[in-house]
């Protein structure tokens, strides 16, 4: 019913929903309607415009509606009048003035929720309009601009003020029972956990709702096919475009049970000119079946669309309790993606005071959703505007999504009876980058490259040890001796030869000699625990004299006291024969050339990695195939940063490769010794804090990734001749920026990665380290990066542990033994990680467990995590403290449950945003401690909230 002037009444549930966002990110202007600027080709009279605005405010009750927010409720009233002074009189920068006008937050303290400014520019005047969403929507803006232009013209002509009655607020009716029943059935058993896309990043620790937007014109081909499809499928263009939007989201990981928000103007036929907030966003839910055709899918979407429009009188906020919340996120449980359609392509040009004026929209810089597509059709150029949450998606991601949307429309129109799963959703950029012809691999092998150096520069140092230097010629002779030794032992080309030796001349000569003999070589560290298993399949084992393996294994000591009758020919080794297990000489040579491109030529390379891993051979070849010296480092250099720094300085080593675990241990003591060196980080994804630290020391940082027994990626770029793909669970090749499993040479790796736009790969790590907790993606590597950024943490390993209460994260940290470490890390995690990504427990260790290859031993970490808490159970007779008991009582009242415990999760027990607002209000009323709404999301249990209340209360 109409609101009486001066009387305060409670806000509606829909209005309270907007207020919740204000409380989530206070002072950010998150509910400012996308502002507009009328750019007028001429000069406007400030006094005339002031009078025109005054007349509109006097006429429309909605423009005089103000809101009052206190700690417990939101109310509104219509003021009989208020002065609204034009802004911009003193502004000298038009664009800056308009942006400030439109992005400045409003306050819900009874002050106006409308601002208008006039800005004089050198070539045109601009009228800016900023409004709060509580009194406006997109339709209201169009009405207001038309009325403003008409009022200006009337004042300019000397017309008297309009004597007609003020336009009262248009009251929206209560939801009809039939509509409530429709939506309850429509959302029954909806699984909201499948809404996240496979692109973009992990959400931030504290939401800001920062948003950006991109606009792209539909290609002429896409526009034509949509027109043709309308006739063919007997569906309006909005339905076809919405159907394609569903498919785009599904192709990027959402669904198959998928809901998209669609804004509906709920004004009655008699109230089409009403100004106010009269939009309901309805959740349009579909299930994607890859076997269904676009024709039948579009018809399903059409039927749903019209049925939803008929029942659009139910605000989204009323429907929230109908969908079970599985997490503690601030987001709505129903959708993360919105589809909007503006029938007239936005706001058309107009005129004011006899001068033509164009309407320009000014982005307020916020987005309440992960992604919103706004369709702007027109007779000329139709466009799609993408508004996106910048905390989740990047501009490159969204640009590619727009490009693929266009391509998907064309593909669907060209084959409406093809199964949805077969439609091509790749864009032109995807094709250009990922379908480019592969670079051919060179016919050379690593042996021919090394032989070339030995022949052209025989005296150059090949290996440098504490015992002296071995030249390239001496090393080649030693390798030839090993070749003769293998022939005398009866080995044949293709046989497997194992080399068990520490880094040094023996290991290098044995590897090269084995290859010259045509053998496949594998290496092992004399001290590794599984050495017998590694060498068990070998025809012959070569080892240093002091490292004889088990007596049951055929073994020969590496010896150079052999007469070499004929020096082996490096060119005689076939590029297609096996050099390592599963790796041909051609592939090994391509890997060596690829990694060599990352390092400065001729600089000594440090040989640091254990022979237990293939990286030891990669380091060997990184030096020898480029003619550089290889400096043999002692094992202690992997743990002693000062020792490593001395080696780098003494030998002027230019290249060092190590795993993240090794780098993390030594980097603190490298100091100036790291400057000017090339630091290669391999085996696991490089932690961001480690990369920042090395770069701060002026090291040139690169990453290498091993696969199929060799380095296959250098800074993410695949080696020449390597077939690399990123694939979805159903085997589809995925386009740029979309996460999937890395497949190398047709073989699944179990590693998650995505393509970058430069054709390189970003490796996220093992697929099992990407978790979905309550519908939220949690990247354990990102969690580890956040913890490692804390001052006291040297390294961190995070794992998931399943308990009776669900899945929780446990962090094992290498850090000093400090009494408050766990509490300090928990506070740090609150500022650095979203709620679902915060570890529940912290376990301090003196060093993270490692494998023989110096990678973090994830199995051992999981065993350690099993010992981390929980603390001993509280005896049944122990009563929770008063604060916890009080919060438990509030939970019980709001959730209408009698089974609330200290560990009850508010949102997993039926809570939602509106109830969360009431919870923090109740807490303030009961305890005097004022919390942000976001505290209910980040501390969703009585115990966690009570601890926060106690902490805040002690600092007041």
Top keywords for this entry?
956 residues; alpha/beta; 5-stranded mixed sheet; 27 helices; 21% strand; elongated
The radius of gyration computed from the alpha-carbon positions, rounded to a whole number of angstroms, is 34 Å
Mean pLDDT: 87
Strand order of the largest sheet: 5-6-2-12-11
Which spans of ≥5 residues are poorly predicted at pLDDT below 50? Answer: 871-877
Structural class: alpha/beta
Terminus-to-terminus distance: 44 Å
SS elements, strand count: 38
Biggest sheet layout:
5 strands, antiparallel
Helix content: 25-40%
> What portion of the residues fall into strands of 2 or more residues?
15-25%
The general outline is elongated
- SS element count, helices: 27
Could you characterize what this model shows?
- It is a single chain.
- Helix 2 packs across helix 4 (138-156), helix 6 crosses helix 10 (395-414) and helix 24 packs antiparallel against helix 25.
- Helix content is 33%, strand content 21%.
- It starts with 8 loop residues before the first strand and ends with a helix.
- A five-stranded antiparallel beta sheet has the order 5-6-2-12-11, with helices on both faces.
- The protein has 956 residues and is of the alpha/beta class.
- The radius of gyration is 34 Å and the shape is elongated.
């Amino acid at each position: 019913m109409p609101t009486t002037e001066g009387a305060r009444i409670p806000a509606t549930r829909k209005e309270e929903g907007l207020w919740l966002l204000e409380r989530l990110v206070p002072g950010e202007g998150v509910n400012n309607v996308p502002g507009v600027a009328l750019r007028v080709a001429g000069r406007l009279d400030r006094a005339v415009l002031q009078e025109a605005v005054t007349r509109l405010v006097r006429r429309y009750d909605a423009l005089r509606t103000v809101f009052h927010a206190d700690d417990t409720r939101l109310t509104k009233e219509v003021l009989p009048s208020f002065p609204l002074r034009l802004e911009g009189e003193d502004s000298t920068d038009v664009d800056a003035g308009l942006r400030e006008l439109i992005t400045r937050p409003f306050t819900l303290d009874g002050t106006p929720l409308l601002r208008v400014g006039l800005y004089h520019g050198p070539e045109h005047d601009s009228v800016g309009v900023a409004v709060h969403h509580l009194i406006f929507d997109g339709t209201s803006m169009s009405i207001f601009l038309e009325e403003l232009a008409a009022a200006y013209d009337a004042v300019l002509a000397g017309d008297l003020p309009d004597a007609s009655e003020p336009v009262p607020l248009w009251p929206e009716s209560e939801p009809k029972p039939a509509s409530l029943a429709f939506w309850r059935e429509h959302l029954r058993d909806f699984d909201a956990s499948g809404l996240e896309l496979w692109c973009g990043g992990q959400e931030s620790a504290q939401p800001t709702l920062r948003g950006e937007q991109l606009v792209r014109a539909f290609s002429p081909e896409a526009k034509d096919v949509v027109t043709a499809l309308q006739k063919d499928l007997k569906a309006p263009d909005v339905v076809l475009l919405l159907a394609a939007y569903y498919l785009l989201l599904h192709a990027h990981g959402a669904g198959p049970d998928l809901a998209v928000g669609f804004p509906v103007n709920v004004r009655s036929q008699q109230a089409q000119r009403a100004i106010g907030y009269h939009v309901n966003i309805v959740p349009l839910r579909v299930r994607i079946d890859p076997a269904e055709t676009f024709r039948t899918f579009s018809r399903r979407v059409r039927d749903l669309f019209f049925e939803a429009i008929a029942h659009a009188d139910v605000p989204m906020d009323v429907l929230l309790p109908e969908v079970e919340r599985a997490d503690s996120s601030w987001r709505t449980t129903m959708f993360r993606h919105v589809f909007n359609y503006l029938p007239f392509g936005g706001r058309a040009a107009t005129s004011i005071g006899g001068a033509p004026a164009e309407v320009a929209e000014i982005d307020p810089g916020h987005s309440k959703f992960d992604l919103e597509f706004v369709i702007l059709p027109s007779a000329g150029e139709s466009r799609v505007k993408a508004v996106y949450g910048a905390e989740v998606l990047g501009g490159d991601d969204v640009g590619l999504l727009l490009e693929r949307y266009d391509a998907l429309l064309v593909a669907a129109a060209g084959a409406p009876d093809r199964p949805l799963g077969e439609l091509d959703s790749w864009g032109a950029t995807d094709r250009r980058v990922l379908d480019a012809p592969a670079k051919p691999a060179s016919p050379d092998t690593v042996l021919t490259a090394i032989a070339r150096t030995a022949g052209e520069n025989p005296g150059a140092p090949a290996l440098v040890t504490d015992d002296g230097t071995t030249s390239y010629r001496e090393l080649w002779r030693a390798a030839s001796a090993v070749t003769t030794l293998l022939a005398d032992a009866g080995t044949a080309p293709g046989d497997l030869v194992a080399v068990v030796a520490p880094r040094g001349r023996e290991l290098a000569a044995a590897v090269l000699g084995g290859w010259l003999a045509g053998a496949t070589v594998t290496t092992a560290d004399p001290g590794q625990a599984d050495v017998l298993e590694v060498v068990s399949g070998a025809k012959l084992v070569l080892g240093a004299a002091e490292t004889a393996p088990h007596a049951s294994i055929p073994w020969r000591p590496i010896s150079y006291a052999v007469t070499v009758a004929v020096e082996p020919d490096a060119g005689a080794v076939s590029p297609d024969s096996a050099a390592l297990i599963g790796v041909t000489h051609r592939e090994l040579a391509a890997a060596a050339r690829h990694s060599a491109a990352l390092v400065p030529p001729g600089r000594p390379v440090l040989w640091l990695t254990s022979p237990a891993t293939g990286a030891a051979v990669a380091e060997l070849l990184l030096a020898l195939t480029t003619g550089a010296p290889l400096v043999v480092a002692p094992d202690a250099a992997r743990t002693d940063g000062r020792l490593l720094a001395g080696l780098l300085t003494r030998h002027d080593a230019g290249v060092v490769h190590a795993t993240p675990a090794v780098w993390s241990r030594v980097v603190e003591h490298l100091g100036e010794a790291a400057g000017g060196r090339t630091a290669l980080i391999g085996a696991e994804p490089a932690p961001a804090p480690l990369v920042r630290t090395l770069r701060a020391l002026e090291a040139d940082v690169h990453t290498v990734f091993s696969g199929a027994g060799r380095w296959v990626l250098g800074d993410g770029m695949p080696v020449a001749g390597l077939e690399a793909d990123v694939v979805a669970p159903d085997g589809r090749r995925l386009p740029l920026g979309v996460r999937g499993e890395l497949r190398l040479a047709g073989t699944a790796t179990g590693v998650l990665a995505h393509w970058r736009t430069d054709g390189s790969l970003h490796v996220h790590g093992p697929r099992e380290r990407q978790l979905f907790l309550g519908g939220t993606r949690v990247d354990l590597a990102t969690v580890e990066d956040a913890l490692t950024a804390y001052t006291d943490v040297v390294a961190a390993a995070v794992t998931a542990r399943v308990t009776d209460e669900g899945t929780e994260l446990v962090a094992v940290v290498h850090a000093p033994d400090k009494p408050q470490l766990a509490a300090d890390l928990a506070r740090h995690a609150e500022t650095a990680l979203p709620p679902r990504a915060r570890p529940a427990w912290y376990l301090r260790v003196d060093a993270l467990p490692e494998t023989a290859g110096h990678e973090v031993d994830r199995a051992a970490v999981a065993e350690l995590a099993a010992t981390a808490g929980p603390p001993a159970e509280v005896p049944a007779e122990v009563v929770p403290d008063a604060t916890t008991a009080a919060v438990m009582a509030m939970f019980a009242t709001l959730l209408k449950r009698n089974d609330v415990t200290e560990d009850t999760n508010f949102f997993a027990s039926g809570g939602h945003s509106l109830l969360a607002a009431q919870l923090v209000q109740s807490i303030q009323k009961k305890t005097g401690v004022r919390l942000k709404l976001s505290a209910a999301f980040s501390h969703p249990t009585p115990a966690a909230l009570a601890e926060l209340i106690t902490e805040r209360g002690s600092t007041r």
